[in-house]
Design a protein that fits this description.
The chain folds into 2 domains: 177 residues, 2-Layer Sandwich (D-amino Acid Aminotransferase, Chain A, domain 1), CATH 3.30.470; 160 residues, D-amino Acid Aminotransferase, subunit A, domain 2 (D-amino Acid Aminotransferase, Chain A, domain 2). The chain is 26% helix and 27% strand. It contains 8 helices and 17 strands. The chain starts with 15 loop residues before the first strand and ends with a strand. The structure holds pyridoxal-5'-phosphate. The site of pyridoxal-5'-phosphate has 14 residues, from α6.
Length: 366
């Protein structure tokens, strides 16, 4: 579908930059950055690149943040041909703005694109879009503890056509949203609900792609979880094994120090999970990626073979699971020192407080 090999394009796009004349003043920005919450405050600009079957990727722009005008027949509104990514920019003590393993997000974006029959965005363009946004809106990267600028790249089908086939026109966008500490009062264990009635993804489906439809499928079970007094849902995969939380991956810590994470074709492979498991491996822990049954989980907690359970993803980084509830049961989950120490090590690297041995950081403002 695409003419450029994403892995090998080193071409730079020439972005056309239109400054936002209504950009907020420094004092207004500082006021918003004091307590930005999550996902409601946006920076002054956005980046977009068009794709068409004839022209490939073209018209790269940086423009004022604002509404997108779409034809009511745009394919995304009907058939949900859409993908997204999520990563953060961190303000370091030296004033620099850094992001974490963005090439991994770019590659995953393209894996999602392939599954959703969308054009791949050359990794170089993805990275360049991050630099372009930070060049105009870098000042929106907050410097408070555990604060960051959340970056949201996304792509959708904008061709106006009601026939069912991959669209021939797409738009890639990048927006930025300053975000506060996920756990303002310190990390708090979550209670999760085991959804046996609903699945977020099917075998052969789109579970491994970061696409909005998977999230739409998770909303009703999420409401069910809330009715049960739970914060999050854990899903089973098509084989009945533990899958993930719908926006976070899950990891079990065993008595002998081994970290086990479910393997399943419908899991979205988190970059946070890979990184945490790498840090654990660096400390000498054995890592196992294999199917995990509900029985293994519940029995392991009961017998003491499992000593810690946590969820992980970009937004919350690492969240200990305090309780697993399901129809007719509520199992208190054990805690060890390990999860919070891995969380601290990872955030120390992200915020530049510890040596970046793996070369995971990329400076965006220089
Ligand atoms: C984004 C996402 C995750 C976490 O991935 P990270 O790269 O760690 O942020 C986990 N599960 C799903 C379904 C996701 O969409």
């Amino acid at each position: 579908m695409n003419l450029i090999d994403p892995a090998h394009s080193s071409e730079q796009l020439a972005f056309q930059v239109t400054r936002n004349l209504a950009a907020r003043s420094a004092s207004e920005r500082d006021r918003l950055l004091e307590n930005p919450g999550f996902g409601t405050v946006f920076t002054d600009h956005m980046v977009d690149i068009c794709w068409s079957e004839k022209g490939g990727w073209h018209r790269p722009r940086v423009q004022p943040y604002g509404p997108i005008s779409l034809d009511p027949a745009a394919a995304v509104l009907h058939y949900a041909q859409e993908i997204f990514e999520g990563l953060k920019a961190y303000r370091h003590a030296d004033g620099g703005v850094y992001t974490f393993r963005p090439e991994e997000n770019a590659k995953r974006f393209n894996r999602s694109a392939r599954r959703m029959a969308m054009p791949e965005l050359p990794v170089q363009y993805f990275l360049q879009s991050l630099h372009e946004l930070i060049a105009v809106d870098g000042a929106w990267t907050p410097s408070g503890e555990d604060q960051s600028l959340y970056l949201r790249p996304f792509m959708f089908a904008k061709e106006a056509f009601l026939g069912v086939r991959p669209a021939k026109k797409f738009a890639y966008y990048l927006i930025g949203s300053p975000s506060g500490a996920y756990f303002p009062g310190g990390v708090k264990p979550v209670t999760i609900w085991l959804s046996e009635k609903y699945a977020r993804a099917a075998e052969g489906g789109t579970g491994a792609a970061k696409t909005g439809g998977n999230y739409a499928a998770s909303l009703l079970p999420q409401s069910e979880a809330a009715e049960q007094g739970c914060d999050q849902v854990v899903f089973l995969d098509a084989k009945g094994n533990i899958e993930e939380l719908g926006g976070m991956n899950i990891v079990f810590v065993m008595k002998d120090g081994t970290l086990v994470t479910p393997q399943s074709e419908s899991i979205l492979e988190g970059i946070t999970r890979t990184s945490i498991l790498q840090l654990a491996a660096d400390r000498g822990h054995t890592i196992e990626e294999r199917p995990v049954t509900l029985a293994e989980w519940r029995d392991g907690v009961a017998s003491g073979d499992i000593v810690d359970v946590f969820a992980c993803g970009t937004a919350a980084v690492l969240t200990p699971i305090g309780m697993l509830k399901g129809e007719g049961f509520a199992d208190e989950q054990p805690r060890s020192e390990l999860s919070l120490s891995l969380r601290e090590e990872l955030t120390d690297i992200q915020y530049g407080r510890r040596e970046d041995k793996h070369g995971w950081l990329r400076r965006l403002d220089a």
